[in-house]
Design a protein that fits this description.
The complex is a heterodimer of chains A (105) and B (467). Chain A is mainly beta. Chain A has a single domain (16-97), classed as Roll (Ubiquitin-like (UB roll)), CATH 3.10.20. Helix content of chain A is 10%, strand content 27%. Chain A is built from 2 helices and 8 strands. In chain A, a hairpin with a 2-residue loop joins β5 (70-73) and β6 (76-80). In chain B, β5 (102-109) and β6 (115-126) form a beta hairpin. Chain B is 32% helix and 22% strand. Chain B is globular and about 65 Å long. Chain B has 3 domains: 11-131 and 281-348, FAD/NAD(P)-binding domain (3-Layer(bba) Sandwich); 134-278, FAD/NAD(P)-binding domain; 380-456, BFD-like [2Fe-2S]-binding domain (Arc Repressor Mutant, subunit A), CATH 1.10.10.1100. Chain B starts with 10 loop residues before the first strand and ends with a helix. In chain B, strands 1, 2, 3, 4, 5, 6 and 19 form a 7-stranded mixed sheet that branches. Chain B has a 5-stranded parallel sheet with strand order 8-15-9-10-11. A 3-stranded antiparallel sheet of chain B has the order 12-13-14, with no helix packed on it. Chain B is an alpha/beta fold and 467 residues long. The chains are: A mainly beta (105), B alpha/beta (467). At the A-B interface, α1, α2, β4 and β6 of A face β8 and α3 of B.
């Protein structure tokens, strides 16, 4: 038997799925989902490595308070993916450290 | 005085936060004739409690993820009918400033904080709600470990789960609500791990009997959990999350009455996600920056001090809901209505006053029952990160306290950077306060309620200079 999903529970009839790009591959997203939600739906839990330990991180608080879910979005580092909507064609890349390697001297 | 020339119309009342309290207050005050503006960082009303799927997801039955959805629907309908109330979505307030005739409310707009706006209002109601109290444990920074409220938020808004087999752990009524939502939405929840034994509730039966709706709500979550075979493990805690790149299992141990883990009671539970939280903390920094008086509640959390009409100690600043001590949505709505009446200079119904008093008493019992015991530090290891943002381990904090003489969270922060990162101590604050030996954390002080781009501050200074 197919496992029940959150969409089943609320009898969701979402609009057509679109796609975002995550580290060079296409990830489906439903209209209205945040970037973090689209990544979770695809089984991805981490999209940042920490500045000091280089450890993987993803969404933690889910409401914009903890800043763990930062990623580089459309070239801008340090974006809270739990707040940003996944728009068609949004390009998300795993952020390494502070995400400003281009400014290193 | 920094004001924005873009907002010529003054408001009688600016309500910060469109959750249950703010929504009820704005609707009530507008219906009593006040010109209200309701501000929220999110894209719709409802706050965290009534967070719901974006319209694009086409959810026909959003009520199935909520307790008391019809109450929210009623308030939302009244808001759209209220001509004097204006809702501004995507407005994250970062500071309140007193002016000669009232307040300047400074906000950034949009999730990227793309631009700023300043609104002028005669009075302000703070209804900013709460955020989750976190206590660190080994492995809590692994992907797949999420906050209980975060799991709820991502499910309610985005219809997604962090995994298929999710352990729910920590303390507080949110755990039962979260576990109940997760199993109903299709996840397996092998255990709900609660640090208290719920006896704290039984000690005040009179208070419980006075709020039957709360018992029904609790029973509703309980029966959902029973139906799905979820095991409740009281007086226990997750003392370690295992995994390398994501969580694959947790270790659960029994606790003594002080929350000290009991050796030899450890048990491993396989899972692919962990939802964890230790209660909620009032989000009061916008008010404490204005010097508002605070009180420490029975849960050890610092809340705003308000009088019977919900006025803070700052003239013109009112507070309703979780900012006055965490108590849930029903209490928040009652306080919002009460504050709406008081600000409009109207007398509330006696029944509303009694309802608020009953719910506040229940909140106090709940808060006392789930107050973290001091023994929780027994599950820490020297290499456990306390501060997630700055990656500061327990050993560094202990060194600051024991060898360098730091006796309060501020000194620990200056020596170790714990609490200095992106979240400004929201995640590590309670733990750092406890480890620094200062007992309960003091009132949150943050000059900025959220990160603000320098360009916006510069724009504000330029506007002020030009006046």
């Amino acid at each position: 038997m197919r496992r029940r999903t959150p969409a089943d529970l609320v009898e969701a009839r979402p609009g057509p799925a679109h796609h975002i790009e995550f580290d060079g591959r296409s990830v489906p997203a439903l209209p209205g989902q945040s970037i973090a939600a689209a990544l979770w739906a695809d089984g991805v839990l981490a999209w940042r490595t920490t500045r000091i330990g280089g450890r993987p991180r993803g969404a933690f608080c889910g409401i914009g308070s903890c800043f763990d879910c930062l990623a580089t979005v459309d070239g801008r580092p340090n974006q809270r993916t739990c707040l940003l909507p996944a728009e068609p064609g949004t390009v998300v890349t795993t952020q390494e450290g502070h995400g400003r390697a281009d400014l290193a001297v | 005085m920094p004001t924005s020339p873009s907002e010529p119309l003054p408001y009688d009342l600016a309500v910060v936060g469109a959750g249950p309290a703010g929504l009820a207050a704005a609707v009530t005050a507008a219906e009593l004739g006040l010109r209200c503006v309701l501000l929220d960082g999110g894209h719709s009303t409802g706050g965290q409690y009534y967070r719901h799927p974006a319209p694009g997801l086409g959810a026909a039955r959003p009520d199935r993820l909520h307790h008391g959805w019809s109450v929210y629907a009623g308030l939302a309908e009244r808001l759209s009918a209220a001509e004097r109330a204006e809702f501004r979505a995507g407005h994250q307030v970062w500071a309140l400033e007193r002016t000669g005739d009232g307040f300047a409310v400074h906000a950034t707009r949009g999730p990227e904080a793309a631009d700023r706006v300043t609104l002028r209002a005669r009075t302000v109601l703070l209804a900013a709600g709460a955020y989750e109290r976190q206590l660190p444990f080994p492995g809590w920074t692994l992907p797949g470990v999420v906050t209980a409220g975060g799991a709820q938020a991502m499910l309610k808004a985005g219809l997604v789960l962090p995994g298929r087999r999710i352990v729910v752990a920590g303390s507080g009524p949110l755990l039962l609500a979260a576990a109940s939502s997760l199993v109903t939405a299709g996840a397996d929840v092998p255990a709900v791990v609660e640090a208290t034994n719920y006896l704290g509730y039984a000690r005040r039966p009179g208070v419980l009997a006075a709020v039957p709706a709360k018992l029904v709500e609790g029973a509703g979550h309980g029966s959902a959990l029973l139906r799905h075979g979820v095991r409740l493990r009281p007086r226990s805690a997750v003392v370690e999350a295992h995994g390398t790149d994501r969580v694959t299992a947790v270790t659960v141990a029994r606790l003594d009455a002080e929350w000290r883990p009991l050796p030899g009671t450890e048990r491993r539970i396989d899972c692919d996600a962990l939802a964890v939280g230790h209660g909620l903390l009032p989000q009061i920094d916008l008010a404490t920056e204005l010097g508002a008086d605070t009180v420490t509640g029975p849960d050890g959390a610092v809340a705003l001090k308000v009088d019977a009409r919900l006025r803070t100690s700052v003239p013109g600043l009112w507070s309703a809901g979780e900012t006055n001590g965490v108590g849930g949505a029903d209490l928040a709505i009652a306080e919002g209505e009460l504050a709406g009446h008081a600000i409009a200079g109207a007398l509330p119904r006696a029944a509303l006053l009694r309802r608020r008093a009953r719910l506040r008493s229940f909140a106090d019992v709940m808060a006392a029952a789930h107050r973290p015991g001091p023994g929780w530090t027994g599950w820490l290891r020297p290499d456990t990160d306390v501060c997630r943002c700055e990656e500061v381990p327990v050993a560094k904090v202990r060194e600051a306290v024991e060898e360098l003489g730091a006796g309060d969270p501020r000194t620990v922060k200056l020596l170790t950077r714990a609490g200095m990162g992106w979240c400004q101590g929201r995640m590590c604050g309670p733990a750092v306060a406890c480890l620094s030996g200062s007992g309960e954390p003091g009132p949150d002080r943050r000059p900025f309620g959220c990160p603000v781009p320098l360009s916006q501050l510069a724009a504000g200074s330029a506007a002020a200079a030009g006046e």
